[in-house]
Specification:
Helices cover 31% and strands 23% of the residues. It has 188 residues and is an alpha+beta fold.
């Protein structure tokens, strides 16, 4: 009888031991998961853009203070953005260009919003080496095409921001933008 009692007691202890072992494993796994969460969350948060960067992801610009024939420079994502209120003469000159004669073949219609052709919005960095071209002020040298002139290496852009002469390989970039009213745009 003592053999049966021992076997019965061993089974009871084995069953109780298994329950304790399972509990300890589950507890260790839960603590490990919580610890991993405390480690992973800051790592994931560090991959997100900073709040000041997110704030500059888009800007709103009031166009009402820009008279026809003049320009304004705004900063967006650390880059200058040129906003030019073009005259009818500047628009006509931009539309009259034979697109096939251009280095970077874009029509004026591809670079402005339909119905808002008087507004040209471009990133103000020369596509050659990233210099800021002249042409924002009425007294600036605007080159032979009345647009912008990069004095560093002689790139000349027309009234649509297209490269016409010099080493720059591409037109001035057009950032993503939309009109949110007749006198206000959102860039980005």
């Amino acid at each position: 009888m003592s053999a049966e009692t021992k076997t019965g007691n061993n089974e009871d202890h084995a069953h109780e031991g298994g329950t304790r072992r399972d509990f300890m494993q589950l507890t260790a796994a839960a603590f490990g998961a919580v610890g991993l969460g405390f480690f992973v969350k800051p790592v994931i948060d560090s991959l997100r853009p900073a709040k000041d960067t997110q704030a500059l992801a888009s800007i709103e610009v009031d166009l009402s203070g820009i008279p026809e024939g003049e320009s304004k420079t705004e900063m967006w994502r650390g880059k200058p953005v040129f906003i030019r209120h073009r005259t009818k003469k500047e628009i006509e000159a931009a539309k009259a260009v034979d697109v096939q004669s251009l280095t970077d073949k874009q029509s004026d219609d591809d670079r402005v919003k339909k119905g808002k052709e008087q507004w040209l919005v471009t990133v103000g960095l020369c596509t050659h080496l990233g210099c800021v071209p002249q042409g924002q002020k009425p007294t600036d040298n605007r080159g032979g095409y009345d647009g912008w002139f990069c004095s560093c290496h002689g790139s000349e852009y027309d009234t649509s921001g297209r490269i016409r002469k010099g080493p720059a390989p591409k037109n001035l970039a057009v950032p993503p933008y939309e009109f949110i009213s007749d006198t206000k745009i959102k860039i980005g």
